[in-house]
Design goal:
Elements: E1 22-25, E2 28-35, E3 41-45, E4 52-54, E5 67-69, E6 75-79, H1 84-87, E7 92-94, E8 99-103, E9 116-118, E10 123-126, E11 140-142, E12 147-151, E13 164-166, E14 171-174, E15 188-190, E16 195-196
Parallel strand pairs: 3-5, 4-6, 5-7, 6-8, 7-9, 8-10, 9-11, 10-12, 11-13, 12-14, 13-15, 14-16
Antiparallel strand pairs: 1-2, 2-3
Amino acid sequence: NIGGSWTDSLNFTSAEDECEWNSLTSKGQLGVTNCNDDGFATEIRLGSNNLTGTFPSEFGQLSTLSVVDISGNIELSGFLPTTAKLWSTLNTFSFQGCGLNGTFPQNIGVATGLEELNGNLNYLVGTMPTEVGRLVNLRLFNLESNGMSGPLPTEIGLLSSLEVLSLKSNQFSGTIPTTMSGLASLRHAQLSYNQFGDGADNP
């Protein structure tokens, strides 16, 4: 429901050029906050703007985006986009505190430029794909408080730029990969309240 229920319509329903679909709000500049020289959106920030309904699959066809922030829209449901066209250009993707569900994209390995992935407090399920090991520029990886399960792939030890890892409060099981001991840049890791080891919660 574009614009209708939003706290600020951000000109999304206007006839203005898409690069003018933004507004200065109490939460800062929201909307299409940056465009490239060809007039295509590169940054879309829609955090805490009362977005409702289903996250549009058409979003995955946008091939120039480097920053997407839809965090704090608790009535926004649907699935994460899976198209390589979107993921291959992203630098930052924040979807904290929404109602997104389904599985984590199995083709996430195409997002080699991704530096921040912030998606805690959603309803993601399924396993972590081995392709996550290709995200060599990832610095922040937060999927805390979802419903993901299964073992963590050993490839997580290939995230050489990783500084913050938060996978707390999921249903991951098995053993924590020993490959993680080689993450030289890692300064914060939170893996509690999963089912590692004997299957019990690990606070």
